[in-house]
């Protein structure tokens, strides 16, 4: 989804960070539902691109996204991330706060349990190979992401996030809802929303509903202090 950024333009560009088992094309329905009026950019994240070596590092992925944005002249953006894309967005909000305006987080993990990771790995294992190939993703590369998240603990970082955040979960994602509630409580300036019938990958299961929530949140004026 190419764009020609204007650093002085308003509203801010919206950067869409895909989840495990997805490619940037997974945002097509969301983009259609969100509509015009805001430049959008959906980059591959380092460690998930087909040409990358198998292996994933959250800090390296966040740094690569920041570098891509700066190369395109973007001084500040809003971020919407699902699954591990939400964790990359969180890491950027902590490490590069000047780059991040607002956050929409759907499925970001705070301190994943063995049960959470095991269920997600099992879900990925049963996805037909042809579906992964059509999406442009690799099963070994996706499984490597889960291995990299085994020691993830974002608890101490949450209080450092300055950006206003919208945390979203699908009602059909029990473990995801529990993690989202922890995330929303830990962030200094966050609100929590649930999408009825939504699954773990809301850009896939509920793109219209996610777009509506994101549109309302991102376009809302900041409160006057």
UniProtKB/TrEMBL annotation:
It holds the Pfam family Abhydrolase_6. Gene3D superfamilies: alpha/beta hydrolase (3.40.50.1820). The keyword Transferase does not apply. Residues 14-212 form the AB hydrolase-1 domain. InterPro entries: AB_hydrolase_1 (IPR000073), AB_hydrolase_fold (IPR029058), Carboxylesterase_BioH (IPR050228). It comes from the Bacteria. Keywords: Hydrolase. One of its GO terms (molecular function) is hydrolase activity. This is Alpha/beta hydrolase. It comes from Intrasporangium chromatireducens Q5-1.
